[in-house]
């Protein structure tokens, strides 16, 4: 087994050496720019489809960011761990089976960390966590997600995850169903119901990705809102992952595992 | 025919003499309070169910506010016009037939004015009018209405009227359907479609009556929002009607007929 | 020393026995109503100014809610602890000196709990805590508080506390001053600066008490908002205090000490 | 005098022939793209600093968009009118004197139109107009403008113009000062006062240009909000000007002169 680098604090003099896989995609190219602009990181390899992974080890990368495609990511990460390289993964498509195989591999790969995050937007992660906490204290909870009109599915995955988080919070507090006396709603204005929570999807020219979570009690309202105006908003989360992955050996699913949300 | 009072400007010395019909209901009792507190108005009669309408003429009322019930309002207003009393009506239940009969009666009743308003919230009237104008200039338009969880129907009548206003504005500008690439929405998160406009209904403890209208174009958003926190918010509209009705002979439907919305 | 009741879970059969001090004030009378309406609580005494505190023990109260005045609260609570009664206190006016004396008394009063909370609005407590966490992850943070136009001071105490919480979060994350290139602001549009955070105060007819906290990073925004539409919104916090105080012996300052904010 | 083109409706077969002056600036290059992408418009000339204006006539332009600099715009427009070319101007720096000279020139230039617009964001124009109308009906009015943290001045020019519009609306309705009992505001949280209206300026990473106008009455709130997420949001206004300018001979100041805001 290849020896692993000890977790270390990067400095401008000794920046962390980072490779990007999927570097020619939109997210990948944004990640390359973000790594290049960070004083404590150095972009040592940028691979596109078809490029040989050995470029990663040849460049001496300590950490690789995988922003490729569902069909390639599991094999990429297996290779990275095998070669002692930490991985930060934003690609979807992981299954219980591929995750299980990765966990086994990591158990034997002393000190290597892998972060798989479905959502690198720090604000979306905060909204989800805070929603679970706030849900314990309010009678009503409802979600409005808003996206550009080219989105193919409704509601968004983030909204579904948030509904699940709210449902967990309500269950923990022993709350029953949300109050709703609606008897007549011929056209479905009350929206989708996900884990008992009503979810509304707005599609609007000029928007990117937005989520509003509203809680209501007698005489009061509490609102969480996250707006992504641009895909660069995912980069602080990617860089947070890069900086922290070596300090978190084994598999972490979800960026919140690296955040101090106390 | 009874002679009608000429329209006049009320003063604290010579306040307008106002009767309230339906004075023991929630809206009616709020109207009595509002009239009593207005320095230029005087409450001269407050009638509940079963009280004789002659109390209105005996008290010398110039204007009557009808906040009764659908089954009584048309007959009340017929009687008021017959006796030369202007009427401000917030009761629903008017049909094309009863409106037609009233128009005929008013044509012969020189100088008497009747205002029938389905919504006395000035903010809701403004939102509807502004929505029709703004709709001409944006690709996307969507409505979110929010109410207390005891409301029985969804979406609200105000939201339906606003959707119709937006549709008129879009048609006037030659706009086609709103852009929406949604292919997969198994649970109905995209909400109701009213006159081609998506309408979402939120039901939340602690809220009263709220409407948000969102418009979107490339790189921008325009939002109209109206919040009714309390039913007293309808009273400025009722008082506006009372003060203006004598200056608008004949039938006016909708408070916007009395407002300067240029 | 008087023996203390063991913490217990209240049931409709054996409700917690609650006294309210300051029962004729606006908050106190709302608290009486809230206790009466809660199936697991029983209002056994309601004292106004001048009433003798012995009515509390005679009625067999286990817990007292103090919503009196700054000049009376410290002496009331001393007496309650002396008689083995838990106290939930919403009155302001506590000083380091009176808090210190209370702590000493409680150290000797085995098992008695006292909660002193400057703000019983659960949403305000959530907003403050979440603001401190979110502050670690964003370049910019700004506060807008909005109240009715009869409020005498600006900004609100809650906004000041929130600014302090944000400042703590930023310091913990090693963040410097918020970015702000303003060179020309002749009329003070940038608002107050509290602990390095800009705070804006809106005064608007129809509003009650509202707080908006906005965080900004490259390409994204995160917003926390709390709206109190009515003073009944403080009651869930008061009841939470009543239900939990016996399980928290000693002095707790701030409702968040009883909340599960992980 | 050069003969002027009659106003005509452009078609994809016979598009309007458009020149852009200041084509290498950020706004100018966005305008070139917008004209090129519009099926009813044709970009026939794109001039940068130092280029000879005769390129405009040589290319047969009917309309020119001036997005140059304050020191050049008045002379450019004089030349365009002299050569029978309509002008749409987004450059600032016009004075009473230069406007007066232009008006004189246009009086003699039969049929030529010039539009000078300080703000091409349609949403900002709508917000300003609607604010003036709504202001008549509410006790309270307040403005919150929000921009990126690199903005040098506060509050924004748009917010100042909106405050003036609100003041006009309030004056027309006979309203006095906004209610405000603030006695103690040591740090200036109540913001700037412009024409009697409180204006707050937020500076936040990730934002571009946003304006919120809030109106309040007893028990209700009315809100207008405009968000510019990107400078492309100005292009629909520029194109509206280009399409309408030939139908509006003489000088028009402000895009609202071309909009149907009834």
From TrEMBL, chains A, B, C, D:
Q: What class of enzyme is it?
A: oxidoreductase
Residue stretches making up the Dihydrodipicolinate reductase C-terminal domain: 123-252
Q: Which InterPro entries match?
A: DapB_C, DapB_N, DapB_N_CS, DHDPR_bac, NAD(P)-bd_dom_sf
Q: Which keywords does the record carry?
A: Amino-acid biosynthesis, Cytoplasm, Diaminopimelate biosynthesis, Lysine biosynthesis, NAD, NADP, Oxidoreductase
Q: Which residues bind NAD(+)?
A: 22-27, 90-92, 117-120
Domain named Dihydrodipicolinate reductase N-terminal: which ranges? Answer: 17-120
Q: Which chemical reaction does it catalyze?
A: (S)-2,3,4,5-tetrahydrodipicolinate + NADP(+) + H2O = (2S,4S)-4-hydroxy-2,3,4,5-tetrahydrodipicolinate + NADPH + H(+); (S)-2,3,4,5-tetrahydrodipicolinate + NAD(+) + H2O = (2S,4S)-4-hydroxy-2,3,4,5-tetrahydrodipicolinate + NADH + H(+)
Report the PROSITE patterns cross-referenced here: DAPB
Cellular component terms, GO, for this chain's entry?
A: cytosol
What family does the Swiss-Prot or TrEMBL record give for this protein? Belongs to the DapB family.
What's the subunit arrangement here? Answer: Homotetramer.
Protein name, as recorded: 4-hydroxy-tetrahydrodipicolinate reductase
């Amino acid at each position: 087994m290849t020896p692993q680098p000890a977790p270390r604090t990067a400095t401008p003099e000794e920046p962390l050496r980072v490779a990007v896989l999927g570097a020619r995609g939109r997210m990948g190219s944004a990640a390359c720019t973000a790594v290049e602009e960070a004083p404590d990181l150095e972009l040592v390899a940028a691979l596109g489809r078809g490029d040989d992974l050995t470029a990663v080890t040849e460049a001496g990368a300590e950490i690789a960011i995988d922003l490729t495609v569902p069909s390639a990511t599991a094999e990429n990460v297996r290779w990275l761990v095998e070669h002692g390289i930490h991985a930060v993964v934003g690609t979807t498509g992981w299954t219980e089976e591929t995750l299980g195989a990765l966990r086994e591999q990591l158990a034997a790969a002393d000190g290597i960390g892998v972060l798989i995050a479905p959502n690198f937007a720090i604000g979306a992660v905060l909204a989800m966590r805070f929603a679970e906490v706030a849900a314990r204290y309010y009678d009503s909870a409802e979600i409005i997600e808003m996206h550009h009109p080219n989105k193919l599915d409704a509601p968004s995955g983030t909204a579904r995850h948030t509904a699940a988080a709210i449902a967990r919070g309500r269950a923990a507090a022993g709350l029953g169903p949300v109050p709703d006396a609606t008897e007549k709603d011929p056209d479905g204005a009350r929206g989708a119901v996900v884990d008992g929570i009503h979810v509304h999807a707005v599609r609007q020219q000029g928007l990117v990705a937005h989520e509003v979570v509203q809680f209501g009690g007698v005489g009061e309202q509490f609102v969480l809102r996250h707006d992504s105006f641009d895909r660069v908003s995912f980069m602080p989360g990617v860089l947070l992952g890069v900086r922290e992955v070596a300090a978190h050996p084994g598999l972490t699913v979800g960026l919140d595992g690296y955040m101090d949300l106390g």
